[in-house]
Amino acid sequence: MTRYPFPKGFLWGGATAANQIEGGYNEGNKGLNIADVLPGGKARYEFLVKPGFDFEIHPDQYFYPNHEAIDFYHRYKEDIALFAEMGFKAFRMSIAWTRIFPNGNEVEPNQEGLEFYDRVFEELHKYGIEPVVTISHYEMPLYLVKEYGGWRNREVVTFFERYVNTIFTRYKDKVKNWMTFNEINSGLVMPINGLGFSIQTEDDKYQPTFQAYHHQFLGSAIAVKACHEIIPGSQIGCMILFAPVYAFDSNPQNVMHALREEQLFNYFCGDVQVRGEYPAFIKRYFKEHNIELDIQDGDLELLKEGTVDYVGFSYYMSRTEKKVKLDEESSEGNIIGGIRNPFLEASDWGWEIDPEGLRISLNKLYDRYQKPLFIVENGLGAYDKVEEDGSINDDYRIDYLREHIKAMGEAIEDGVELMGYTSWGCIDMVSMSTGEFSKRYGYVYVDKHDDGSGTLERKKKKSFYWYKDVIESNGEKL
User: Fold this and answer.
1) In 456-468, which positions are buried (b, 16+ CB within 10 angstroms) versus exposed (e)?
2) Does the annotation mark 22 as catalytic?
3) Over the stretch 163-208, which tens digit does the pLDDT of each residue have?
4) For the chain, does the N or the C end have fewer beta carbons within 10 angstroms?
């Protein structure tokens, strides 16, 4: 078996998001956020990608799984002990903005929220687990969405600055590794989650989307500068949803189409956050879509001053593109578009499985940016069965993760500088895209189901023990 040279100090661990695990949506003086008004099941997908979402809770019509989630808010000690048993070096989590500023625009923070994360960080440090904290992970304050129009409104930058200064000052001795916006480029396909508004018509999406991005880039640069000033020795990265784009065939028209799709989706946001300037290719895109950004004095200088230290990214699938597509060629379940790749198998939810694509992604990103990389999401959503003896034999998950970790090892051999790997959903939680509990990613099974039933009991899956061995051997025992 090939032994892969994972570096000393490699950050093995797992990843979560506050809105998908915490629950306690109305406890501790927390305000409502976007995730709190997203229903579970098929209705969620419709709201995420289609216009007209009203950002209201309709309890008579829908079930809202994020309200309780898996109750990490009350069970964090139990869960962190399980992560420690696996040997986690790092735990990627997010802070819920509305636990710190319930509406988002307050002047003074909510002490109950600050104290909750104090306790979580202290529990992690008790076991020697390094927190890796995402500042904004699909949980924008609902008040800022309704009253300010989300990130379209430049005033939100001021509120975000107050938020980041507060958490950096509070947790400067507890957290050294940060990320700004989760999967920032996902706003191109799901603006509700990332940008805080719903597109009303296809025709008006371009201007507000890219103006919102400009404001978010300013927020990111402000956060980077503040992090470096307030927390000496800290590292702060961006976070991109990365899916390498393959041309369907060698037809130059398809190759060019794939290139354009990859530039916009995979590189646009990263180029601004890593290089500190708008890339050349986006200027033509703006011209073709009549986009004129309101860029104020000092904005471009700020972007240049606030470049990130590393590139965090999620990797779940690749994407195959063809300039002229037929409906029957679409890749089922792939929310970022594309057509079916005949060389790949797919998960239970139609996400194409492509470990070699991870090696390709690592090489592409490192070649482009020459910055340390951090895989902060990667995993397999699948149906898990609890056997009569209580065991959960998720060999399919082990196979998926093993092949992706091998691809990471190959990329390191290729010369890529890789900081760590926090696989997605180290414990079962609410799925972001579908609002289901049955789409499970974790090493730890949580007895919670799509109708809201369940005891919330935690059970170790077979993959729990496998990942423990992977970490203990620093990736040698796969």
Assistant:
1) eebbbbbbbebbb
2) no
3) 999 999 999 999 999 999 999 999 998 899 999 998 767 667 899 9
4) N
User: Which CATH class, in words, describes the domain spanning 11-472?
Assistant: alpha beta
**Nearest CA to 139 among 163, 165, 115, 158?**
163
Task: Give just the sign of the alpha carbon dihedral 283, 284, 287, 290.
Answer: negative
C-alpha to C-alpha distance for 341 and 333, rounded to whole angstroms:
13
CA distance 165 to 168: 5
Burial class (CB in 10 A: 0-12, 13-18, 19+), 337: middle
Check residue 124 and report its DSSP letter.
H
- Phi, psi at 459, each rounded to 5°: -135, 140
Token pair, residue 43, equals 């209705």
Dihedral Cα 457, 462, 467, 469, nearest 10 deg? 120
Give the burial class of 252: count Cβ atoms within 10 A of its Cβ; 0-12 exposed, 13-18 middle, 19 or more buried: exposed
Cα-based angle 184, 186, 187 (whole degrees, multiple of 5): 85
139, 352, 377, 436: which one is catalytic? 377
In degrees and rounded to multiples of 5, residue 99 shows phi and psi of -80, -25
In the chain, where the domains are located:
11-472
311 Cα distance to chain centroid: 12
CA distance between the termini of the chain? 9
Work out the burial of residue 343: count CB atoms within 10 Å of its CB; fewer than 13 is exposed, 13-18 middle, 19 or more buried: exposed
